[in-house]
Fold these 4 entries.
Entry 1:
Amino acid sequence: MSLLELADVSRSFGGNRAVDRVSFDMSDRVLAVVGPNGAGKTTLLNLIAGQLRPSRGSIRFRGREISRLAPWRIVGLGMVKTYQIVRPFRSLTVEENLSLFARLRGKAEVGEILQETGLREVRGQLAGALPFGLLKRLELAKGLASRPELLLLDEPIGGLSREEAQGLVGTLEALKSHGVGMVVVEHRLSEILPIVDRVVALDQGRLIFHGTREGFFEDPSVRAAYLGGRDAGG
Ligand SMILES: Nc1ncnc2c1ncn2[C@@H]1O[C@H](COP(=O)(O)OP(=O)(O)O)[C@@H](O)[C@H]1O
Ligand SMILES: [Mg+2]
């Protein structure tokens, strides 16, 4: 059974089809979603997470239709989305932020998650004083609080230095090896590529490619749409 299965999913805003009849099956562990600005990547993630309703189509998570479920129900089923913009409680420590969140979400062992996300050393620091790179890690840690089976990551390395990005990709790689699935929207494809199994490419809301990362770089329509610039995405 596929972890995630989209069939003919569309979402319009006014007359603008942000996501246009997108279908794909996710059977591998890590799927990258790429495309230029405005391609519909964030809208697609929000549809999958239940934060937006599709205008049409079906979304299944582990075989179960979820497109009409409330976001918190979807979290309960084992799928969690992290945010591009990080907003912790600034006057609480890293550990307090995480404990608070873990209590809301349920299961996980806070110490374990601090370890997994490389936050153990800074657990006593105020979240408001953390550098951006560690804030992104805290966002990931919050996402892990309910021990999800599938993480939806919107630009997890956006705004990070090359070095910070490498570190975070290492963390994601470790999570992957522990069985966590991921749908990753990311402009900086080349930097997350080591953990990616399959790529979905969107252009103006439409799926123009779904396949392996090797196939991605060889596909003529992908080349035409994205690879004119220096990296996939833009
Ligand atoms: N809440 C919204 N209301 C109206 N239009 C939106 C909304 N969210 C996204 N759009 C439009 O949908 C299209 C896709 O946007 P988005 O999913 O944010 O693209 P991406 O994340 O790939 O940059 C864009 O044309 C954007 O202007
Ligand atoms: Mg976006």
Entry 2:
Amino acid sequence: MATTIWFQELFGQWGCLIALALALIINLPIFIWARLKHHLTLWGSIVAGFFGISYWLINPVFYLGLFTFFISSSFLTRYHKSVKEPFLDKFEKGGERDASQVLANGLAGFLFIVGYLLTILFSNNFLISNAFIYGFIAAIGTVNADTWATEIGIVSKDQPYWILNLKKKVERGTSGGVSAKGTAAAFLGSLVIGSLILLVESFWHNPIHSESSWQLLLFIAVAIVCGFLGSIIDSFFGATIQGFFECTVCQKGTEKKTHCSQPTKLIRGSKNFRNDHVNFWSSFIAGLLAFGFGCFAYLL
Ligand SMILES: [Zn+2]
């Protein structure tokens, strides 16, 4: 026998409609705000709305993870905006997030919670459904860590080090650059996601079926570490396979394909592997690590 989904347990036979109505009531004001404040483009907010409602329907615990990421990154992007202005030119995209950025940040987490949903609907295997939750925590942990690291690291006055050679310094805002403050922010970013889910798990409806609170703590701690590792993988990809270009007019390094109204020249990585691909793959790999650990640990 498969488990019933949270809204059926909570609201009975009309649960699905009530949960959907709640999702709309909660999400509409957030997305109107996000549009008015230019945190998201129109298509960005449509994709974010789709993620918001599906995350919520699968379990509000997952929604909380996504919500924390979205709100904290929206505020951090505005944090010390004038200090960031000179470096924004390096990035492919600005502060208003478009559909492909939203996909890059939310898709890996979405895949893990769809895995969770299918597992609880079609089998009673809590080992696997739990492992999907740890995968989800690591995936959202990674994108949160990466955003916190970028937005906080860039306002720090310390010049970052090149991740492939820690003796070499690079310009602030360079993908693949790492700094002490950015790394601490990354760890905190992943820690906040994992801790919030642990907190809600301890007080409310519980999607994680753990045998003991120590076990729960251990697995969430591993997922937090995987989320942090994900942000390191992100920097590593940023320094290697992500396309990096040079302006043929002003010679500045950039992630943009055009600069000073001229096409830029590729100097590193692959021209088709962009920052959005880096974000998706690093969060997906971090999720797989935590998912794998969740499956493997029970086998011992
Ligand atoms: Zn230029």
Entry 3:
Amino acid sequence: MTSQQKADFKKKIKREALKLGVNKIGFANVERWSEFAEIAEEFYPQNIWSWSRTVISLAVQIFPPMIETTPSVVYSELYNTTNRFLDEAAYRLANFLNREGFRAHFFPRDCYGDISVLVKKPEAAFSHVIAAYYAGLGTIGMNHTLLTPEFGPRVRLVSVITDAEITPDPMLSGELCIKCGMCVKNCPMKAFTPQKGSIIADMDKHKCARYHAQLKGEFRYPCGVCTAVCPVGEDKKKYGKNSVTPQGAEHCRNFGSKNAVENT
Ligand code: SF4
Ligand code: SF4
């Protein structure tokens, strides 16, 4: 492909993804995994799918008035919807790339069988956060999530892997995390320990997973407090600091979950 054909094809992919309803899309060449060497090599896309050349990262927003009710069935429903939405969008985009003559598939957005697995082994075979970071969608915050300028960490991610060689997007320079510590302070499990010399806190993923297992049993999974409280993102300006009143959040928690029934 000439450079003009490459640029036109990239625009076509972006148009296709935006038509599917995603909020953000970015492109990372697989060499970025080895260039930055921040995670174990077994997680590099090129070591899992040797033919892969580009990872396309897709993000959809999480609405603040819904996540700010967490833990609640309101947020739980939103979470489940984003999962279906992301997998469907990624499936369709991979199909589109196939029709254009390229190899492509997607890595599903969560990819674990049950929360009981995460309690014992809290990691997935592929990191969408790292992919989105290398694709220029945002930077990684103290709370281990991807922070974006538009939605802070209130995004859900999925990745499409392809052998199409697409010009990568520039990664964001600087850090979006302002190190305010709100995520650390508000975590109900005290799972974060800030580290000297690194913006990313040490995280006890087992503690976080255990809490999620409890919430799942109560039909109000996941937690997401560290995502809800983060002040970064234009969405916080749009909805205001508290997009749901404290009594409104409590009201939502009092309906729909097992916990709500038991507290009646
Ligand atoms: S999801 Fe909840 S329990 Fe897990 S780290 Fe974030 S605030 Fe803590
Ligand atoms: S809450 Fe504050 S410290 Fe935590 S990720 Fe957001 S900006 Fe960083």
Entry 4:
Amino acid sequence: MAMTDAQHAARLLAQRAHEVGRSSGQERHGLLRWLGCWRLTRSVTAELDMPWRDEASGERSGWRQRTAYSDGEFAFGVDYQVCRECGLGWVEQPYTVPEFERCGLASAGLAALRAEYPGLAWHTLGGHFAESRGFWAAVGAGVTGAYEQRRLCPHVSRAERREARPAGRSWPG
Ligand SMILES: [Zn+2]
């Protein structure tokens, strides 16, 4: 099956998952020279402008979301939470936009998180649907914790409750 432009861009993006929210001009120059191909150069430039980002989760208060954008388009996101005290990390609901699927974005994003928080055991909060078991087995191979289901530790759930308290919210209007 031929790779689409989107999939090609997503594969290159997956290779840069360790570069979060920054790109230096110098790096870009070197890459462009190395590639020496205008068409590729253009797509790589677009990716450097839209790197991986670390954002607040839109769904879970107190959680972060690691995201990847390809050409300004949201391509991948996974919620995560860590507790250094317990040496635990959780990831939840990795999601890849269908046109960018099977390009390694999810496994690259998870690997980048593990590299940024070394020494943690990694888990998921919820159970795994039957269709995602193969994915978790693949990305969890050799990973401490193996992304097996595990409840949040008290430190993290306390922080969640604190942030979720309605009194702390302000409503527009
Ligand atoms: Zn903890």
